Amino acid sequence: MDPAGERQRSGVLAVGQVSHHSIELVWTRENDTNWTDAPKNWTCFILEQKNDRKHTYKEIHKGYNTRFTVENLEPKTTYTFRLKVTWPSGQQRYYPSVSASTEKEPLNGRNLHNAVLRSDELELCRVLQSIKVTVDVPDKLDFTPLMVAVMKGFTSGVQLLVRHGADVNKKTNSGKDSLMLACFHGHLDVVQFLRSCGASLSSRDGSGCCALHWAAAGGHLPVLHHLMQDGCEVDVRDDATWTPLMIVSVMTGDTAVASLLITAGADVNVQDRDGKTPLMVAVLNNYEHLVKILLDRGADPNIQNQAGINAVQMARAFERKVQRLSS
Q: By residue range, what is the domain housing residue 133?
């Protein structure tokens, strides 16, 4: 084959499809290539990409095909490429370089989460109206934008997300939903809105805790009061058979929360699967004020756990100086 004819029919680098992270490059090849011949008789193409800082080219592809897509590029960036052709005759030629720019990165889940994190209602509207983003896209911690807005108390953002289809009952991998998070962080207006949109009071996380457990752990009295008025069972148990009152004894020692729960009917002598009572746990955690509240509200210090030990014996064993606690 005449080398001059080969050069006329091969090469001519052109740009194909372009996205925000890739550029497709295509070129021509002589029509009479015989693929039954040995590879040494095929026309070889080497694609090179320019390093603008060093003004040098680096090989990024070598082969016999006439199409290659350069991946992992930066959005809104211009790149330059050139094609080197080697014919079976051994002759080589560089064709004129071509430049192409990647597109602007489309709106995605990161834009949605950033708008929520900044409590930027206008940006949140813009992203949601693009119809290019999944409204329940999770972040690295498995929180959806709605969950993040709920935790921040970004009420208008919560409303926007729900109007655009956010699932109020969607859960994280650990089973937490938006209502539980709103209860823990104490955003009563968000709790009320979520409930009006169908958020479930009976939903449980991976440990069997419901919204009332989370509200008790968060220590927010208005939220607790609202949940109990809304129908939450005051002595609801999680997988460890802990009631919200037990959660207070385990985690916070909050006397105001304990008093509210007891006034609402919480059993001060409730026992978990190991026989522990809220009083025993309060003693072990040295929550003196909580111990006093529990005793004043009828806690029995002589109840025994499964090991046959009562709160008085625990106080002595752990040297807890709790007044009024005697056998």
A: 106-207
Q: Are residues 29 and 83 in the same domain?
A: yes
Tell me the per-residue pLDDT of 52-104, one tens digit each, with 9 for 90 and over: 999 999 999 999 999 999 999 998 999 999 999 998 888 999 999 999 999 88
- 26 found inside a domain: yes
Rounded Cα distance, 4 and 34, in Å: 18
Number of domains in the chain: 3
DSSP 114-154: HHHHTT-HHHHHHHHHTT-S-TT---TTS--HHHHHHHHT-
Picking from 72, 101, 130, the residue at the C-terminal end of a domain is: 101
Give the position of tokens 């064709």.
Answer: 95
CATH of the domain at 89: 2.60.40.10
pLDDT grade for 308, boundaries at 50, 70 and 90:
very high
Query: Is residue 34 included in any domain, yes or no?
Result: yes
* Chain Cα centroid distance, residue 156: 20
Residues 140 and 7: their CA atoms lie apart, in Å, by 52
Whether the CB-CB separation of 152 and 115 falls below 8 Å is answered with no
pLDDT, tens digit, 9 for 90 and up, residues 14-36: 999 998 899 999 998 866 566 67
- Which string of DSSP letters, residue by residue, matches 19-72? -SS-EEEEEE--TT--TTS-GGGS-EEEEEEEETTTTEEEEEEEES-SEEEE-S
Give which of 129, 109, 133, 131 is closest to 121, Cα–Cα. 129
Which DSSP state fits 202? S
Question: What CATH number does residue 174 fall under?
Answer: 1.25.40.20
Residue 6, pLDDT > 70, answer no
CA dihedral 149, 150, 155, 157 (to 10 degrees): 30
Residue 183 lies in a domain: yes
User: In the numeric block, which tokens belong to residue 160?
Assistant: 């926007």
Percent of the chain with pLDDT over 90: 79
Distances, alpha carbon 211 to alpha carbons 34, 111, 203, 220, 239, in Å: 72, 29, 8, 12, 14
